[in-house]
Amino acid sequence: MARDVILATDGLTMEFKGFRAVNGVKLEVERGTIHALIGPNGAGKTTCFNLLTKFLIPTAGTIRYKDKDITGMRAADVARLGLVRSFQISAVFPHLTVTENVRIALQRRLRGDSFDFWRPEKVLRALDGEALALVEAVGLSDFADSLAVELSYGRKRALEIATTLALDPEMLLLDEPMAGMGHEDVDRTAQLIRRVSKDRTILMVEHNLSVVASLSDRITVLARGQVLAEGDYATVSKDPRVVEAYIGAGHA
Amino acid sequence: MADTAAIDVAPIAAALPTRRDDKALHRMIFVGIALLLIAAPLVLYPVYLMKVLCFALFALAFNLLLGYGGLLSFGHAAYFGMASYLCAYTAKHLGFTPELAILSGTATAAVLGLIFGSLAIRRQGIYFSMITLALAQMAFFFSLQAKFTGGEDGIQAVPRGNLFGVFSLADDRAMYAVVCVVFMAGMLLIYRIIHSPFGQVLKAIRDNEPRAISLGYRANQYKLAVFVLSATLAGLAGSTKAIVFQLASLTDVHWSMSGEVVLMTLVGGMGTVFGPIVGALVIVTMETYLAQFGAWVTIIQGCVFVLCVLLFREGIIGLVAKLIRKPL
Ligand SMILES: Nc1ncnc2c1ncn2[C@@H]1O[C@H](COP(=O)(O)OP(=O)(O)OP(=O)(O)O)[C@@H](O)[C@H]1O
Ligand SMILES: [Mg+2]
Known about the structure:
The complex is a heterodimer.
Chain A: E1 5-16, E2 19-30, E3 34-38, H1 45-52, E4 60-65, E5 68-69, H2 75-80, E6 83-85, H3 98-111, H4 128-137, H5 153-166, E7 171-175, H6 183-196, E8 201-205, H7 209-215, E9 218-223, E10 226-231, H8 233-238, H9 240-251
Parallel strand pairs in A: 3-8, 3-9, 6-7, 7-8
Antiparallel strand pairs in A: 1-2, 1-4, 4-5, 9-10
Chain B: H1 12-15, H2 20-39, H3 46-68, H4 77-93, H5 98-120, H6 125-145, E1 162-163, E2 167-168, H7 172-194, H8 197-207, H9 209-214, H10 219-245, H11 255-268, H12 275-289, H13 296-310, H14 315-324
Antiparallel strand pairs in B: 1-2
Helix pairs in contact in B: 3-7, 3-10, 3-11, 3-12, 4-5, 4-6, 4-10, 5-6, 5-10, 7-10, 8-10, 11-12, 11-14
Protein name (chain A): Amino acid/amide ABC transporter ATP-binding protein 1, HAAT family
Organism (chain A): Methylobacterium pseudosasicola
GO molecular function (chain A): ATP binding; ATP hydrolysis activity
């Protein structure tokens, strides 16, 4: 059975002044799955994301997305290929309204570049309907006209997901999408992720293991920059090395 | 992100979203400004007014880059000054009509902005600012050494000429009318840029550049575009000033001119639509009426600057906007 791999890395390595945050990572994400990347703090998960989305240039290794070598591409161009990330530290546009935050993503997808400085903002109103629908999907309707800076942390995360979804990306990289959320929001977000995963691929970093267990098809465990184990939740959670890595990190 | 400029470029005033009824308010203010411009020569000297307007346009152009692009240039005198030289030169030595001279000056600033901008935007924060300063210093020394700029003397006795070859601008009132039109057009264009699809992306990049990039925006291209627009409009202001005062000199390319436009923008309120105009009015008035105190002007300016930074970072208009809770 040939696996349909959408994103693959080989020997991915990132060195910060002699310190290998990511060390020879081989990762294969199958199309249409939810793939979780877990590991103790400082394992190199976020650094991996930064490499995959070209926010960092790897010291060594290659990245292939949809059979295309994207190792040398620029971040914005990778996003245009449909490989879109969210950030661990909630990344919104604080001085735009909630609707505008989502709309800025729609604007990129539907209009391409917007160098038209001579046109009135009015032309963007055509996107408001779709933007509001996305705002509603993440439960932020009541805040549609609020500035993003005024939102609580959990709501900022929700807004970030809505903004990411507005790009209708083929593949989503979510860095701890539920960090800082209350129970209710975690449930809603988990449902949302499952819903949007229908015709997409998702690679997700998440510390909430029950979420990981219920959502993901496959899990890769990272520790000290290296892949420690890979498989479904049952396999991985029983792996003694994984257990040790988590406990070891807990003591450190 | 906040670190894209040396100072925090998202003050509270800019944070207020512009809603539809706010635009109606802005329109009323524009009409008010137009009426004021018509009435002002009845009570004030046209030459003083023209100076205010040229600097107001300069500050508006600068604020487009700082307040909306989040980029702090320490070298905007280069575009203002080089444009003024080219305008003066073409008007005096090539016999260009004033509108063509202004156009050639403005085009010079655009080209210079494209070159300097593409060098500077590769760096972030204070490094960006330092590169703009260094490049502007090069423009200054070029102006000092080059033949066509007239060195220490500058280009003097520039003819105001006849607009479109027909209307003489020798009279201050005729000149004033032209300056008013240039100013209003520049101001409205900047307002449109801020409230365009392009402006929307610009605000996003200013707010959070990595996020904008992750959405597929090539941030550097947008930064370069706003840099060129800002330099071009600064050039329009510098060119117009050369025709009005019939002079282009080293003062216009000097680093202190770059500092002055920063001051005007901060005093008026960066990231506000109308702040730079008020800032220019305050600073030009101070210079004009305090000129008798000589060197003290500089010291007073320094104090104003320190006060602004310490006490009201939003600037005059920023403060008003905060009080009435409307973006201005
Ligand atoms: N720019 C950088 N310069 C130097 N070291 C870095 C840099 N970025 C990350 N590191 C180091 O690389 C290691 C991995 O960091 P990373 O943020 O990828 O971990 P993580 O798995 O995402 O952790 P967490 O679960 O806490 O988010 C850490 O030790 C971190 O200190
Ligand atoms: Mg992380």
